[in-house]
Structure formats: C-alpha cells, structure tokens
What we know:
The complex is a heterodimer of chains A (282) and B (159). By secondary structure, chain A is of the alpha+beta class. Chain A has twelve helices and 13 strands. Chain A has a five-stranded antiparallel sheet with strand order 4-5-10-6-7. In chain A, helix 10 packs antiparallel against helix 11 (238-250) and helix 11 (238-250) runs antiparallel to helix 12 (262-272). Chain A is globular. With 159 residues, chain B is of the alpha+beta class. Chain B is 33% helix and 14% strand. Chain B has a five-stranded mixed sheet, with helices on one face. In chain B, strand 1 (2-7) and strand 2 form a beta hairpin. The termini of chain B are far apart.
Amino acid sequence: MKKTGPVEIVKPKDLTEAVxxxxxGGMPLAxxxxxxxxxxxxxxxxPFLVYIGELPELKGIEIRAGGAEVGAAVxxxxxxxxxxxxxxxxxxxxxxxxxxxxxxxxxTIGGNVANASPAGDSLIPLYLLEAQVNLVGPDGERSIPxxxxxxxxxxxxxxxxxxxxxxxxPFPEGNPRAYFHKVGxxxxxxxxxxxxxxxxxLEGEVIREARLALGAVAPTVVRPRKVEGKLRGRxxxxxxxxxxxxxxxxxxxxxADVRGPDWYRREVAGKLLLGLLRLREI
Amino acid sequence: xxIKFILNGREVEVETHPGRRLLDLLREDLGxxxxxxxxxxxxxxxxxxxxxxxxxxSCLTAAIQVEGKEVLTIEGxxxxxxxxxxxxxxxxxxxxxxxxxxxxxxxxxxxxxxxxPDPTPEEVRAWLSGNxxxxxxxxxxxxxxxxxxxYIRGDAKxx
Lengths: 282, 159
C-alpha cells in the first residue's frame, strides 16, 4: 500500500541516544533518498525513524597519517568537494556519476553502504581502497572490512542496535591511476546497469599491481582477485588485456532485472576491462 | 512538534509532524505552491528547493530535516517585484512551455550559478541531470541558464 502520510521520526541528541533508539527498533535515517521512497511504496515499514543525518559524531572528514576517516553522515556532495577526493581521485570519478546534484547533497556514504545495493556507486571506491567500516552498538565499537560488512542485496553485518559511525580509508601506497566506468540506460541520473572501477599501479606501460571492483553483476560488489593477479606484469595494451576479458566475465553472477538482462551484464563486464586502456592517455 | 526555520529570508515557526514532507509543509501548510510535486520519489526534480544554499528534493525531505536551516523556494527569488535574472532568462529564452518543471529547474540553476557563475553548456546539462522536462527538449533550458549566467555576471544587456 502506498503510504503518503508522515512517518514517525525522532532526532537523538547524541550518538548514545541514537544507539538506544536503534536498539528499540528505530531505523536510522540519514539523507532519506532511499528510505523515504521505500517507506512510501510500502517496501519498508519501520516503527519509527531515527534521524542521524546531522549528528556531529557522524559528520566530517579527517585526514590523518596513513588514511582518512569519513563520517557515515557525510553526503556524497561533501565528499566530492573534499580534499580527500583530490587526493584519491577514484572518489571524484565515482561520485560525480552518482545520482544528480540534489541527490548527492542529500544521500550519505553511510546510507549508501547500509543499503548494500550491488549497484551502490559509493561502494566501488570503498572496495578498491579496502575501507574499514566502524560500527557502534549496545556492546561497544567494532571495525570490519567493507567486504565482510556487505553480505548481499540489502544485507549487512549490522547487528541489532548497531550503527555505522565512519569509514577508515587507508591511503594506497604510491600513486595508482584511478578508473571508473558506469554503464546506464541514459546519461543523466542513472543507476548502474553495471560498473567497473579500478586502481592501477603502473611502471611505464606495465601493470605492477591492480585492484578491480565490479558493480551490479553479483549479489555484492565483486573484487575479481584472479583477474587482478593476472593483470600483474601485463602491458596496458589491447593484446595483453583482451585474453583476460573472459576471466572477468567468469567472475560475475549477474541477475536480470529492470535495468538489463543477465547475459548483457556478463558480456559487457568482460569488455569493460578494455576501458583500462584509457589510462594510457592520462 | 514546533519547527523553526528561515523561509525565503523570513523566520517561520510551524506546528507540524516531524515526518511531514517539506513539500507538503510548503504547499499545503504555508501556501507556497510554486514548488511542484512530479514523481514524489526523487526522479524528476520538480520539487527542488535550496536548503542552506544547496539543492534538495522537498518530496524526500522531512520537516525535521530543515529545522534551523535556510530554505529558499521559487517564491523567494524575485526582489521588490522584479523577477530574478534566472526567471527572466527562462522567459526570454523560451525555457518554459507548460511550466510545471520550471520552478525546479530554476532552483537547480540558481544553485549551479552560485557555485559556478560561468558554466559551459556541458556543465549546465550535467548539473540539471536530476530535472526532467517533457516539453522543451532541454535545449532552450540550457540556453536560458547560460543567458542567466550572463545576466548575473553583468556582461549581457539587462534591458
């Protein structure tokens, strides 16, 4: 049933109170770009929402030695404008393709991760940079790698009463090139049919190391580690990359949905690897 | 609950439900019907308003999310009975047909020109990617925003 009336929302005064409300069964609300849509369509029916979008403990980006801590309630636009996106251009490449300006001003990085959509754009840089998810709950704090946090579409390792507080983004060594390609059905405000992000460490034309992250081709974002390993030592050339396309294809487990058929996703996923050739021009 | 915020430069205090949509608060409780509801789910941009100077979709914003903030709607743009240069440019460049999407486009354009006073056509298109128009085909809208940018920079004749 379509729900158009107001939903019950509480605004905790601090993180401790937020955890208490969430433990009582409240659903965290940050930007609302997904939550309000799903609630109105009747897909979600939480007893009440806990508005954490402005909690100071969840805001801010702090650059430290070896990495940066990004608050869960930092919006995509704030991250896009930040010094961190200058330092780690993969964020810039991905976030400027996420939604549209208003959506980016509203939606938060923590919300995108908690939704655990395999098509969630901001997951791509977090997987590539091997981010840690910092959680707080009734039993205290813990920190787990993003790959262990996301369990499947809409499924995460969040325990009852737990909230995402921040993300720890370790700085990669050296100066990897960043790549992101998002395939969509139109050029504006689109959700990925599939996507490929990459960090590539080059020595001249030779790949020393590569990390890949595929979006929307499996129940979670995928790091195709076999392909990453095989990229090592190859040249950034069509002849060297083409044989690996089938391997990347094999790393996918796509579904067919409103945005595209499974066979299309599998076919295109392999081909996206050739997009890395564009890194030669930068 | 009572919620206080600044609306088009004036402080307002309303008795409302914290989960009331900002869109309904504006249109139904405060009588500002310039902000439109298109899709109601964040796809069309017709309900775009500015909150603390940044574009936001009022259909996906709860009243509690604007507490203590500055909200600017299409009604807040004209000054002393004079249309805002963006409004004028939309009329002159025929960036309006049925007009339903126009307030959303103008508010999005306002946010763009504040951040980037001299955008390229491509930047205008990218920025307006969250706003749908089913009449104009967008060309005139892009032209209107570029013209508005000229007006605001003062390098076009403001007759």
